[in-house]
Design the sequence.
């Protein structure tokens, strides 16, 4: 996206809105925060139209050609240094913007996804911006920050519904346990990860592109093997 096009885009994500009175900021059991209504209601229709039409489940590296104009504008704004500064200030990370940024997007999940984990040590911090237009009155697919790795019901904060405008960020730690109950179906989210190095960004991007091709060919097997997973299934990173 050109600088001229970006500058002409309306403001879709303003880090100043993180100061809402209902933003939840915690430093135990690890650093995280949850902010609601971080996207303008007026942009919902365009963002819905412009979200990538992935046919496979999982997170895939951002490519401009997959997205429409409003989604490209939003992602450009999410990687602005002002966002990194605002996020870092709430997580106790100085100069978060110095780290490489990787954007991945997910449109669909199968029941294999959401097992309890911490994120890999190559991540400094992770943000999730949800875009589901609505969500049924169920816990399946709702993000949970957890006190332990072996109990999906031991919540460190109220679970977060993956609905439009909910923005969740956490600092990676050896105990940054999170996950959700098994869910199969559409669950739109943009993930922003600040990484330890450009080499890790390249590695994760290449792996994500390979995963996209693999899932196009063998997605039915992925769904089959994940269908019966235990709700407390976990892996460390």
Sequence:
């Amino acid at each position: 996206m050109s600088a001229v096009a970006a500058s002409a885009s309306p403001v879709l994500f303003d880090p100043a809105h993180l100061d809402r009175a209902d933003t939840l900021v915690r430093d135990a059991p690890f650093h995280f925060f949850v902010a609601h209504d971080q996207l303008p209601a007026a942009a919902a229709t365009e963002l819905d139209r412009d979200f990538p039409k992935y046919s496979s489940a999982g997170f895939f590296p951002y490519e401009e050609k997959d997205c429409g104009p409003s989604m490209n504008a939003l992602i450009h704004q999410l990687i602005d240094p002002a966002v990194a500064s605002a996020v870092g200030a709430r997580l106790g990370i100085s100069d978060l913007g110095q780290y490489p940024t990787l954007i991945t997007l997910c449109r669909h999940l199968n029941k294999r996804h959401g097992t309890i984990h911490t994120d890999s040590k190559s991540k400094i911090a992770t943000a999730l911006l949800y875009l589901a237009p609505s969500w049924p009155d169920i816990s399946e697919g709702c993000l949970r920050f957890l006190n332990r790795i072996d109990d999906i019901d031991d919540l460190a904060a109220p679970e977060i519904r993956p609905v439009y405008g909910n923005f969740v960020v956490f600092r990676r730690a050896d105990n940054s346990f999170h996950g959700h109950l098994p869910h199969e179906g559409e669950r739109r989210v943009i993930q922003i990860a600040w990484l330890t190095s450009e080499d890790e960004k390249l590695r994760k991007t290449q792996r994500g592109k390979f995963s996209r091709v693999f899932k196009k060919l063998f997605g039915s097997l992925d769904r089959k093997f994940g269908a019966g997973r235990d709700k407390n299934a976990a892996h460390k990173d």
Summary: The first helix runs from residue 3 to 8. The helical segments are 3-8, 44-50, 69-78, 81-91, 198-226. The two ends are 33 Å apart (CA to CA).
